Amino acid sequence: MSTINFSFFTSLSPAHLVMLFTSAVSMEAHYREITPPDKP
Prior knowledge:
The protein has helices at residues 6-11, 14-34.
């Protein structure tokens, strides 16, 4: 993870960061939705 270019994140506007965060959360929620829980 040391190859992350932090200038890329700092160049992003807060609005872009919010959009990326919300999209990641929605994608995770959708992934949890389509995958059945591993119940015994």
